[in-house]
Every structure is written in C-alpha cells, then in structure tokens.
Design brief:
Layout: E1 7-11, E2 17-22, E3 40-46, E4 49-52, H1 59-64, E5 70-74, E6 78-82, H2 86-91
Antiparallel strand pairs: 1-6, 2-3, 2-5, 3-4
C-alpha cells in the first residue's frame, strides 16, 4: 500500500506509560456524524501499577476490543507489530 504494511503499535516499558481510549470503543477521528460528545478513558502505569481513570473500564478490555483505537505515550518508545500478527498477539495478552 501507499503508506506501507499495517501495524499495531505497542509501548515499551513498565513505567511512565499512559493510555487513552473511547469509553464505547471506536476511533478518535473522524468523529461519527450525530455524535457531539465522546467520553475518553485514561489509564496510567507507574511504580504502583495501573491507575484506571474510570471504574470498570480496563485497558485489557480495550486492547481486546474490535476496532478500538488506543492512544499512548511512553518514555521508553514503542514496538510496531505487523497487523497479520494481531490476533495471535491478543490471544497472548
């Protein structure tokens, strides 16, 4: 394809990693027509483990969701995994 092979991007490290995803799944952009507001859930990983921003919304659920976009920032960089390996990767989370 014009931009190269599709890949999922995964943060490296166990500290100073922050995540954000939409409460009901989906992508951040473009905003679906008729939807004026979207709730963003955040989660941070620090020395104390995960701090989920909202009760009941877990990062592992978002990672296993179909067509969920998850944004992150990580001090230690990231790893790109070919999209063809996504199903196998998700099984091993």
């Amino acid at each position: 394809s014009r931009w190269g092979d599709a890949a999922s991007i995964w943060p490296l490290g166990e500290r100073n990693v922050d995540f954000a995803w939409l409460e009901n799944g989906g992508v951040f952009w473009p905003i679906p027509e008729g939807r004026n507001e979207q709730v963003v859930v955040t989660s941070s990983f620090s020395m104390n483990g995960f701090d989920n921003g909202r009760q009941g919304y877990k990062l592992d659920d978002a990672l296993k969701g179909d067509a969920w976009e998850i944004m992150f920032r990580a001090d230690n960089g990231f790893l790109a995994v070919p999209a063809g390996l996504d199903a196998e990767l998700k099984q091993n989370l």
